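Below is a filled-in request sheet from our internal design queue. Each sheet records the structural input a requester submitted and the sequence that came back. We keep these sheets so that new team members can see what a complete request looks like end to end.

REQUESTER: design group, bay 2
PRIORITY: normal
MODE: inverse folding
CHAIN LENGTH: 288
BACKBONE (tokenized):
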């Protein structure tokens, strides 16, 4: 519960409430990149503390830092930009929060499938997480993705991100484990590891508005987590029963390629679906 409350959804909420659509993608990219940067900075430090002083000491340091952050937010941060207006204007169209739930039940524009697909591949990151190259390229890739999402078609961006991610996962099991093999994978995978978040947030916001986007992106992220949990279990089962992670890499890569194809069925805001195209939400189960 605690981890979920401070997940990427909270950063997306801050970005949609505080920044205009012309800058929102870049802000989401910065906030998302900070997640990977934090892992690069804190995970080695916490591992060192655990080895030297025990896990309780490492946990105490984390709790202390969380406390400092909570105090800083309580004292310094406002809920909204002062330019956001008040009353009904804040609510956009005057709809209730539940209206977003009702609309999402019939929408064919919400890119849930692509984010669910991403959960399938993250269970494999432990296989190569020791390469700091991935984190470095992720930092620049996610910020760059935010910048791009403010300027280009977000559906096409997500298509390329998941396409390259799927190809990199399919490539890794067959690469020679020399310096060149894992390094190339880390560069390619790192560039689009979390790069999908800014264009996904932008798509949801464009289709449902600033007030509805937060709760709907929360549902998208929940689907992502369910996909990650299922894939982690599947990868562990494959390793135990088959003595190899190869099926996990192949399935995750295929799901990413499937998510890349599904995202193209999402229509532009206010546009019509292509004739014969399949609503993204209806086929989300396949990607999951």
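RETURNED SEQUENCE:
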């Amino acid at each position: 519960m605690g981890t979920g409350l401070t997940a990427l959804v909270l950063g997306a909420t801050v970005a949609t409430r505080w920044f205009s659509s012309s800058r929102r993608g870049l802000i989401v990219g910065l906030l998302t990149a900070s997640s990977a940067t934090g892992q690069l900075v804190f995970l080695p430090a916490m591992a060192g503390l655990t080895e030297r002083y025990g896990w309780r000491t490492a946990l105490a340091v984390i709790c202390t830092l969380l406390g400092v952050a909570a105090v800083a937010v309580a004292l310094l941060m406002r809920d909204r930009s002062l330019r956001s207006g008040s009353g009904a204007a804040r609510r956009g169209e005057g709809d209730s929060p539940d209206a977003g739930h009702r609309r999402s039940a019939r929408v064919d524009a919400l890119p849930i499938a692509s984010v669910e697909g991403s959960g399938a591949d993250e269970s494999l990151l432990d296989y190569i997480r020791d390469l700091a190259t991935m984190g470095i390229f992720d930092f620049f890739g996610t910020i760059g993705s935010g910048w791009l999402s403010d300027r280009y078609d977000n559906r096409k961006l997500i298509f390329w991100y998941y396409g390259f991610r799927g190809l990199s996962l399919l490539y890794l099991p067959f690469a020679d484990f020399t310096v060149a093999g894992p390094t190339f994978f880390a560069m390619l995978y790192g560039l689009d590891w979390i790069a999908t978040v800014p264009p996904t947030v932008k798509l949801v916001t464009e289709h449902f508005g600033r007030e509805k986007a937060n709760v709907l992106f929360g549902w998208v992220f929940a689907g992502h987590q369910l996909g990650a949990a299922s894939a982690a279990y599947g990868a562990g089962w494959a390793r135990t029963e088959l003595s190899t992670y190869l099926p996990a890499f192949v399935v995750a890569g295929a799901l990413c390629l499937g998510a890349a194809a599904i995202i193209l069925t999402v229509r532009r805001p206010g546009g019509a679906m292509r004739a014969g195209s399949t609503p993204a939400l209806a086929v989300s189960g396949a990607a999951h």
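SHEET NOTES:
- DSSP finds twelve helices and no strands in the chain.
- Residues 84-117, 123-128, 272-288 have pLDDT under 50 and may be disordered.
FILED BY: M.R.
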